[in-house]
Amino acid sequence: DTGVSQDPRHKITKRGQNVTFRCDPISEHNRLYWYRQTLGQGPEFLTYFQNEAQLEKSRLLSDRFSAERPKGSFSTLEIQRTEQGDSAMYLCAAGGFGNTEAFFGQGTRLTVV
Amino acid sequence: DQQVKQNSPSLSVQEGRISILNCDYTNSMFDYFLWYKKYPAEGPTFLISISSIKDKNEDGRFTVFLNKSAKHLSLHIVPSQPGDSAVYFCAAQKTSYDKVIFGPGTSLSVIP
What we know:
The complex is a heterodimer.
Chain A: E1 4-7, E2 10-13, E3 19-25, E4 31-37, E5 44-50, E6 53-57, E7 65-68, E8 75-79, E9 88-95, E10 103-104, E11 108-112
Parallel strand pairs in A: 2-11
Antiparallel strand pairs in A: 1-3, 3-8, 4-5, 4-9, 5-6, 7-8, 9-10, 9-11
Chain B: E1 4-5, E2 10-14, E3 19-25, E4 32-38, E5 45-51, E6 56-59, E7 62-67, E8 72-77, E9 86-93, E10 101-102, E11 106-111
Parallel strand pairs in B: 2-11
Antiparallel strand pairs in B: 1-3, 3-8, 4-5, 4-9, 6-7, 7-8, 9-10, 9-11
């Protein structure tokens, strides 16, 4: 158990619909990251929170993507007007203060049809 | 521009032998290096890390070597076991609090 839970595990949606994913780290994890992984590639960084502050966003994160972490606890990643190219595994990772390694959740597999 | 490279997409090793997975990086600002292991349909699992002030870190069957001048690191698994079959990602950070940048991964198959 990495202490990072993601919900849902799988999501199938029609193109043009909005989807929201949730990540719940244990309270000791003050750093939270979102990544996207497609087949045959390593995880690509999307965005990063330190507590409730969003410190960095990747250029990969278009205007259709938004992430929040209210109160520095759970985080949500929303994709508006989904496109087929958004189909991927969305991974959340979290790390505690002083830890170098980030621990990943099991991911949310998004399929846009 | 890929900052972390793993030039071998796949590797097959006989059970009991040594597995050597290689990784190169281009950004000299990286100070922490990590290896993650990933099974299908699961998130990556942290395996081992090394700080740039060290050249070797060992944890059981897993050893990571860092050659900072060559911007190269490697993961040695001895002895290899069938359960080690997975995709291995090399990753790097500029600081221990920064985002982790991943390589494309190497798929390791350990043959019984």
